[in-house]
Design brief:
6-stranded parallel beta sheet; 53% helix; alpha/beta; homodimer
Chain lengths: 295, 295
């Protein structure tokens, strides 16, 4: 059994840390607002800072909202770096910038430790059910060391490549998902505005080249007008921010990612930050004064 | 057995008409350059005009390149309309404007005949193998009358709705396919430029929410640099023209369809009119001075 640190115990981190405790590991916990009582009841140990967690554990996991939060918890006052000693592994499971991740990994390596970036997909449902997909970048030896820990939290666990590649994969996933939602939205809205039944059009397209998980799931949500998340627009906006900021740094042009972010922005302007991301269709519908279908 | 007319005997029409002849129907043929000799050898009957075809046959099929071609062959001098008598069925299997199709259907109906719009997907490979997908709009009774004829040419035969709905479905398909190709292109190009192996990224994404037929097939073409068609960019440009022109008429905003057409235009500017449509990635690559992968 490992000594594991878990920093960040929000809607994702708390159930993930719970699986590690239930799996028999010794888990040291820190979050800004203190660890949830039930994690302590189940056998977790509270620590007063990220630094103390890093000093106590051999594998230190971070699960916080965004790039600046990871930087602060790793390298800020009383942060992980201050508590590390050589031979430990830092695993960032947050979804953050791939470019920043490479710099963080280099700084952790200088301390004689390994760094894995291991963002997840599957949301709070996947976190609770321990069915997350986990996309990992970093040294293969570190990946293998931590694999059994990942396996307590997720199902599809892929070692993609070197440091940053896990975050890059997550961003690529969020680009493709957002743009495929938009593709389905344009197709179904066109069909509906032209007078066809979008449900029959979707049926006719399933099985052909237009087939996608998104046409199946999100296409149905657009037709049935069920926009409860699922995955919130506000979260997908954060991910497309990462895509667009990193695209600027890397020098790559993502025209439809930019348009999708604009459409998400139009949704939040209508109060849709908490809509499911399939609600992107509503921004196109407003431009057309027409809905894909009546709910 | 039916008396069938077939007008337009190009790369798609010739094999389709051949299946009807081989299926035992009496088939009357017309094309501007005369019917291929092998269709006559197999039992087809040449006619001197679309008008004569319409006079001889009960079900008259048109398979020509674009909206103005359909209009000319139906309503021009010596066209189908001049040869029709009440009770016949006109079946346009070309891929043309949904809005124009509704007007054509109304004019044919005035002559006491039925009109079906029945565009196909599957390309010349599907035409030869009789595995086309056929998306049909128009009266259900006419659809049922012609179903056995369709079944000689295709496999997935769907009655979507009223006149125009077949063409609308085809346009929606081409919108979703183009935009999903673009989605995969942005995702894989971002990943590659960020230093990840696009092949491993694609593997990690398959099975999750980003899964699509396009990620599977066209994503692989982008990685392996195999841009032989497949489906030619020039043909997809024609389809997106239909989408954008009809979107203007209908009053619907298709921002990413417009961008995809712009990217296709950039490909043709590089001599890529005959590339497979997955070659759209090359336009994004040129903007980034970077390829998804080395071929």
């Amino acid at each position: 059994m490992e000594k594991i640190g878990f920093i960040g115990l929000g809607i994702m981190g708390a159930p993930m840390a719970g699986h590690l405790i239930d799996g028999g590991h010794e888990v040291f916990l820190f979050s800004r607002s203190g660890p949830p009582a039930d994690l302590i009841d189940r056998g977790g140990t509270a620590r007063a800072s990220a630094k103390e967690v890093a000093a106590s554990a051999d594998v230190i996991i971070t699960m916080v909202p965004d790039t600046p939060d990871v930087e602060k918890v790793l390298f800020g006052a009383n942060g992980v770096a201050e508590g590390l000693s050589a031979g430990k592994v830092v695993v960032d499971m947050s979804s953050i910038s791939p470019v920043a991740t490479k710099a963080f990994a280099a700084r952790i390596k200088e301390l004689g430790c390994d760094y894995l970036d291991a963002p997840v997909s599957g949301g709070d449902v996947g976190a609770k059910a321990a069915t997350l997909s986990i996309m990992v970048g970093g040294p293969k030896v570190a990946f293998e060391r931590v694999h059994a820990v990942f396996a307590l939290m997720g199902k599809n666990i892929t070692h993609v490549g070197e440091s940053g590649d896990g975050q890059t994969t997550k961003v690529a996933n969020q680009i493709i998902v957002a743009l495929t939602i938009e593709a389905v939205a344009e197709g179904l809205l066109f069909a509906s505005k032209a007078g066809a039944d979008p449900s029959k059009v979707r049926d006719a397209l399933m099985g052909g080249l237009a087939t996608s998980r998104i046409l199946e799931i999100h296409g149905e949500r657009m037709i049935k007008r069920t926009f409860d998340p699922g995955f919130r627009i506000a979260l997908h906006q954060k991910d497309l921010d990462l895509a667009l900021q990193n695209a600027k740094t890397l020098g790559v042009s993502l025209p439809n990612t930019a348009t999708c972010q604009a459409l998400f922005n139009a949704c939040t302007a209508q109060g849709g930050a908490a809509w499911d991301h399939s609600g992107m269709v509503k921004a196109l519908e407003q431009l057309a004064h027409h809905q894909v279908a009546e709910g």
